[in-house]
Design goal:
Keywords: Kinase, Receptor, Transferase. The chain has about 140 residues and is α+β, with helices and mostly antiparallel strands. It has one domain (about 5-135). It is about 45% helix and about 15% strand. The protein is elongated, with a radius of gyration of 18 Å. The mean pLDDT is about 90.
Length: about 140
């Protein structure tokens, strides 16, 4: 489970992901306008404070937020697939002779990482998770 999932997404990272996924420039501009103009106010003793700009995160209850969060989480999927493709991480084998290897499963803000028991896998996972946190703001 990502810690404070919606609150932590870095907007620049989200725009980079959309760029890598070939989202049209106009679409990305619209999303930036929706996300980057967010403001908030806090109730103190029942009275709202002045509005202040938000610098990261996705708004709870916004219909776009689940979709945008999935785009942000896609970065972890890409990193894990790259580690497996380069034989730096070995997934868990399922089945008999024609087995498949599963390295990770993702659903919404939940991620399950699966692999053989080895120090190489531990080091690879640590590297992936640190890199993903640095890029996305998610941990």
């Amino acid at each position: 489970d990502f810690e404070k999932a919606y609150d932590s997404v870095d907007w620049g990272y989200l725009d980079d992901v959309m760029g890598k996924m070939s989202f049209p420039t106009l679409w990305r501009k619209w999303i930036r306008e929706c996300v980057c103009t967010a403001t908030a106010s806090v109730l103190v003793n029942g009275s709202p404070t002045d509005e202040f700009p938000l610098r990261r995160g996705l708004r709870q209850g916004d219909p776009l937020s689940p979709f945008l969060f999935l785009l942000a989480a896609e970065g972890l999927n890409v990193l894990m697939e790259a580690m497996v493709a380069r034989n730096l991480f070995t997934g868990y084998s399922i089945g008999g002779q024609d087995s498949i290897r599963v390295s990770h499963l993702q659903f919404a803000d939940d991620t399950l990482l699966l692999g053989v028991k080895s120090w190489a896998n531990v080091r690879a996972l640590r590297a992936v998770l640190v890199l993903f946190e640095t890029m996305s703001g998610l941990k």
